[in-house]
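Checked the freezer inventory, then went back to the computational side. Two predictions to log before the end of the day. The first one is the construct we discussed on Monday; recording sequence and tokens without edits.
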Amino acid sequence: MDRNDPGASHLFLVTVVFLWGANVAIVKSAYQDTHPVLFAAIRFTVSGILMLGFALWREKAIRIQREHWFGLLIMGGVGIGIYQILWSLGLQRTSATNSVLIFTVQPLLGALYVDWTKKEKVDRRRYVGMLIALAGVILVILKPTAKLHLSKETLPGDILNLISAACAAIFFTVWPKPLLRIYSSVRLMGYCMIIGSAVLWISILFGLRFTVFGYVGQKGWWPLFYAIFLSGIIGHTFWYEGIGRLGSTTTLLYLYFIPVWATVFNHFFIGEKIFTQQILGGGLILLGVHYALKE
């Protein structure tokens, strides 16, 4: 497929939105009897091995040049491993609503980073579009039945989630772009997943209570399959394809659509009610992203 085809590039990211938006509800059901860090460790280990195997079969090589290993270790270790740990620890100390809202600041964090480091030019129009879309996300997430908690009790968790969002935006999305000019998205993501899973297994063995991680419960197998093959292998590969084709700032804009699709998915598959303000919020997200992408 032509890497210069913008239609195909945006289609990849639309697919990511569908896969990752549904991932929240599907994977959450596994957490009833499987610890999130164990779930993530298994998920990224299996996904990474399969992706490297596929890269070896398709490309006949999976070598990474020596000078690129430092960046790769940071991308996988921090962008996946540390991110997952901080997000899980933060979620335990704050509300789910707080956590989701903090997650949606990733596009702004990524834009500020690339603008500050001069990796990409981010003009005022794009910042305005991001703020409009963020306002829409707030309307979608803060539905009448949701509760936003801002207090001293939730502050540690909120800070951990904010740091984890920065790790994902910078090291998982911005840093890979130069390497995607050299390596395929499958090869690069495969190594990142393996490195990230190693960090997760180390945290399980030495940093957390091992007795909590004894098994994957019966409710965890179907979500694990989805997380490995659909949101994992396909979703992450397409995400890196988007970064390599369109740049990190444009790719991050698609994160604003995930709460919209998650709301629609939860309505049809779980029966959650959709409120008028969420529909208005979805409209603001479309307006903001359209404005940010307009040339």
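The second is the one RB wanted added to the comparison set:
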Amino acid sequence: MTQLFAGPGGLDLGAIRAGLPSVGYEVDANAVATRLAAGLPTVHADVRDHDPADTSDRRVLAGGPPCQTYSVAGEGSGRAALDQVLTAVKRLAARDTARHVFGDERTGLVLEPLRWALQAMDTGRPYEAIVLEQVPAVLPVWEAYAEALEAEGYRVATGVLAAEQYGVPQTRRRAALVARLDHPVALPAPTHRAYRKGVARHEGNPALLPWVPMGEVLARDEPFVVVSNYGTGGDPKKRGRRSSAEPAATVTGKISRFRVVSEDGRELPRFTSSEAGLLQGFPADWPWSGCDIAQQIGNACPVLLAQALFTAVTSA
């Protein structure tokens, strides 16, 4: 499998569990350091400087392009340029090879998987399957991808998935695309119940497993409450709170700033890198390396969600 924007290994672990060893392209030196320490095959390079001819394994193409300009936690230039991005998708589908220029170059990186997929098609060695994930704001881009890929003979499914419905101890939402060449494909069916504030985990669809709370994966000596900055609007009294009996809120690169307190209000140690990684589905001993580890963890795709996506295309 060829993986673009490979990050520190979330997609890799999901792919490996689904029986798909991969080679990851990653430009960030810190993420590359983590990947190499973990023994993951890695090409330290900008995906814009490469194409499908540089890799021999073309069975599956995957990736999670940088989300900073699209995320609601970011400055929003990608969301503001969405119409330009959708136009660029159509131009790529028409084989217009002119470079697309945006105010923030990270915005245009979301186009790279389509460029790779179309170039592979044009060389007569198309990818059999494609798996992509990003923040929910990118769903319109994946829907435009779907139109372009269907014109090439792919079957495509897109949508927004909730990570806790795949066993991740975190309520993260991701826009996903899965595609198969000449074979029907569907997004993975949930295996766990959706989290709802104030609704007990044993309630809901009995055919699904309960969602997973933080306390089930973090080996802490006592119950705790995580105090984040989500939804504050600048008001400290509105800071989001999740107890250890609930899933974590979305893990971001700012997770090291979240306070952890006891049920009676005592300050407790904040999350370690190992703990933050566990909330994303990484093993406790994952060899986080380089600098800005919190950002690496926040940028990663949750492992169990990645596994579900790859299983969806390999079992189709």
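For RB: The CA atoms of residues 120 and 126 lie 5 Å apart. The first strand starts at residue 2 and ends at 4. Let me know if you want it refolded.
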